[in-house]
């Protein structure tokens, strides 16, 4: 019992409810256990946020790999890089002065994440080689029960169990590679690999003198091709879909590299570092209008992209075969100048057809094209982007998240799903760090609410989620994603599954203030939801050092009131009753012809 309430005879009502002796909004009222699945870019961000913006929270992180980084640890194919400008791909609390290139390689991004973890001591929360294989909501205990498979250096495995009040899933989309089912693939005598599983022992010395086939023309192919082309004897690329291969900004806007001297300047002049990051952020934050079909901005994007593709592809047959007839943005646009230049080299053949069959030594296209004497096949065929989790997630009433996301991966504001208490964050879409930060901030607000109000669980209402997703599909009609293009943003029936219906700034603004009225909320106290109010004491009253009148400061004072002292208006006297009556019958200036707003509605 707290000293303030010692000797108080607390009443218990006829329903068995006794007001708890707790301090209002004191984190010490309840210790929360939070588990995060994943230590990639978003996981590291959450580790920092939870460390600095919560109290009395035990944070545990499980990572299936042997270290941090997620996709930036796993993907090691030649030229693997982020297609977002480096100075945009950073946390706003740790802008990186040491980026060497405009589009940094995967190992450079991993080094940045490693430095963030070292600077803020974040690895202490992380358990590596620990794959979560089941997460199940317990109605009886109001918690998530977790089943984890841990792997050891001697190749043994062990099943361990954990639990948490809040489960944050930030496993991303780019970590489950897809290998297409192609007739005869198992009979191929050479090497078969996926770009996401590039072995360490397959480098330039092994490629030299080989005939290599790359299947696909997505982001990983666009980066891998110029990395291997100068070293292989011959390269054949099978491409079945057209794509915009050049970023739409003029060539002279982007600086390709940053010298050591420039990096030192960024380190020593933080204002210059911030300005550098703002250059790219301000540009990307103004792109939304260009996503409207037939908008002037969209036409500018298309013309700039066509100009670049004509310039770098050079050959008419390549230009015609690769230039899309759908708008820029319908599929993900990849900065592809090195890729286009590689396609024009004498040791490269491009086949605009899908692969239908593979023999022991050859690859055959649907159009009958056969590439013989192949030494290696590289699958640049992307990832499973269906949003369905790759482990069992069972929410309220035994509902599976896999089933919930079949056929439509509908969610509430890209973050939560009805019938999944905790909350669960199944999707962190996109690579815009400001939007990821907005989601992390939302998670922190929710964790603080769970703790402050002693919540049992919360999940978005089904009716609210349904209306939101109806709005999404309706609002995106007339934007570039309503066109027919082969993209993981949309389903074959035209339903858009991976795009927010607005700009990044719009999204950040929407999620900045949680709409708790959209949520089904249950409370720990079985008798009264208001138990968290306690006996009426705040932390201020129970802390001798706290400011007892925080609402009275010099900063609160409005200068306009004090400036009045030097004007004739400073002196005045109360009106008589008759003067006051006449004033009440006088309309304010500008109101003479204005009708009542209430009456009109």
Keywords:
601 residues; alpha/beta; FAD/NAD(P)-binding domain; five-stranded parallel β-sheet; four-stranded parallel β-sheet; 28% helix
Describe the structure.
The protein is α/β, with parallel strands linked by helices and 601 residues long. The protein folds into 3 domains: 25-175 and 385-533, FAD/NAD(P)-binding domain, CATH 3.50.50; 185-379, FAD/NAD(P)-binding domain (3-Layer(bba) Sandwich), CATH 3.50.50.60; 555-600, no CATH class. Helices cover 28% and strands 15% of the residues. Strands 8-15-9-10-11 form a 5-stranded parallel sheet, with helices on one face. Strands 3-2-1-7 form a 4-stranded parallel sheet, covered by helices on one side. Helix 1 (41-53) packs across helix 12, helix 6 packs across helix 7 (270-284) and helix 8 packs across helix 10 (337-343). It is globular. The relative contact order is 0.13.
Note the total helix count.
18
Q: Which CATH class of the largest domain?
A: Alpha Beta
> Which structural category fits the helices and strands?
alpha/beta
**Physical arrangement of strands within the biggest beta sheet:** 8-15-9-10-11
Report the CATH architecture of the largest domain. 3-Layer(bba) Sandwich
Beta content = 5-15%
